């Protein structure tokens, strides 16, 4: 077995198994022991992909198809340049990606002209790619005008987004939920750990070096002010937490500090029992990762390399069949549905293993996000303090 992984794409592994098959693995962990030991991470694995039997077949570039995934993955790898990834790209061209059911969403350092964005002709990057994908995902069966969807962003780093919420609302949130007349505008939440949750994590303050939100300057405090209404706890089990009238569904990850990055749209903000789509990615909440707003030249500028996947229920069934995706807790597969004979029961139920508990716990007025560039003199559960050199 040959594994390819390097500093140039730390979130992507390509494994060739006896050269007859290949598997693509996308993960949120860096290739360092600490990330894989006591931090919460996510991994997406493709099925084993065989060699293509013929080179002359017509490729279906429908979003979510294996052929579209292959085109976008090879485009991403090609951006590293022929010396770094040329041989890998040529090798991967020989394999059949038809078994994959997912959409690739990636970022590369680039400038994209908004007038030239056409995902049928070429791979898009950053938030333009994300927005294009969201426009094409079919609405979930349970999503109606009577329910309010809930989009939950869960990340390990928040960069400088500006002193107003313009980029957050007009670029990021707008990309996650393009305008629709068939559903209500979504509710938005952002999960980020507090200093108290880092203190009580498996590595205590040692986990904090991988999790970032700067809070010291006046501009950073302004950013925190407009983000605060969206902020939700990672663990939500602190002593001063408001008592919940709904029983918690325990994901079993409270003490594992989050290096994972997920973006999930729940069909109903009240119940949060079905999922319209889910994304696992290396991309945190930043203009560097997703791209800045369109500039005066009509361009979107992206600075960093990122990669992730988006999945949704209808990918896993035929057009005439129904499917639903549900959150699962401490297990990979969903519980058997009740009322199996009901006409509304879907043909297929797909489980999405949750990294955090539901329902979510909002920040209280005194709660502060973890800040790795500030001193924390209160000892963690290991007796450590966090001081700056």
UniProtKB/TrEMBL annotation:
Protein keywords: DNA damage, DNA repair, Exonuclease, Hydrolase, Nuclease, Nucleus, Signal
Location (main, coarse): nucleus
Residues of the site described as Interaction with DNA: 286
Cellular compartments annotated: Nucleus
Residues annotated to bind substrate: 261
InterPro entries: Tdp1 (IPR010347)
GO MF: 3'-tyrosyl-DNA phosphodiesterase activity; double-stranded DNA binding; exonuclease activity; single-stranded DNA binding
Similarity-based family: Belongs to the tyrosyl-DNA phosphodiesterase family.
Protein's name in the database: Tyrosyl-DNA phosphodiesterase
Species, as recorded: Aspergillus oryzae (strain 3.042)
